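Project standup — Tuesday

K.O.: blocked on the structure for the chain from last sprint. Re-posting the sequence here as requested.
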Amino acid sequence: MNRPDIGGVHIKYLVHCPRQLWLYARGYRPEHRSAAVAYGEAVDDTTYTRRRDIDLGEAKIDWVTTGAVVHETKSSRQPSDQHAAQVRHYCLLLDRCGVNVQGGVIHYPVIRRKVDVPWDAGARARAEATERQAQDVIAQSEAPARLPRSRCRGCSYLDYCWAET
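H.V.: unblocked you, prediction finished:
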């Protein structure tokens, strides 16, 4: 399998569950049936409406402000590592395009909170390592093992992964 272009969703899925990433990369996309995904899309569509998405092909950044600060909106009630990894990946993609990225901000409008995501040499190294890890998972011939079922709450892939049990 060729090394695929890696977008923010790939990174988010990798950090959440490598199996989810592997299935997504092979075209299994049950997100359209997920109430949580629909809710997240509604939050994204109704907050920060004056901004414009930045489409980088495989990745779509919510918006970038003057000074090259990446902004991402999440409907979650709790910040997570997967959100920060996704923003670091966006910073990496922009950096590769020659943009002098300053960092990122994750917006959680439901809880009215913001989290800063620094961009420096260490963050770049983490983003590159995460990207390589995502490519390695996608290249595997078989799906990674399931996570413990308790970690699958709210995942739109739950029915697929746990159907036989």
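K.O.: great, moving the ticket to review. The helical segments are 8-16, 18-25, 35-46, 81-96, 121-139, 158-162. The mean pLDDT is 86.
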